Amino acid sequence: MVTYSFRCRRCGDFDVRAAMGEAGSRWPCPRCGDASARRFTAPRLRRGDPAVWRAMESAERTAEQPGVVSAPPRSGTTRVSRDPRHARLPRP
Fold first, then answer.
1. Phi and psi at residue 3, in whole multiples of 5°?
2. Which of 30, 64, 78, 88 is at 20 to 30 A from 58, Cα to Cα?
3. pTM of the model
C-alpha cells in the first residue's frame, strides 16, 4: 500500500492509501466529494529501528553541544572480577 496526497480546493489536503498505481491524478474528496488534484511529495519512508535513530540524534546533538566530562576516559586499566568462578579459569 502506498500513501498518496491530494489537495481539495475547498477542504485542503488529505491522504489516500491505495495499491501502487491505483490512484490516478484525480480522487474524490472524502469530505465534500469534489475531484481533487494529486500532489507529488517526497516518499514517506519508515524511520526504522528507534534505538538507531536515538543514537543518531544523540550524535547530532553532541556535534553542536558536546557533553562536559569531569575526567579523561580510563584506558589501559583492566577490570577485576570478584566472582570466585573466574579465579578457576585458565590464565594466558
1. -100, 120
2. 78
3. 0.46
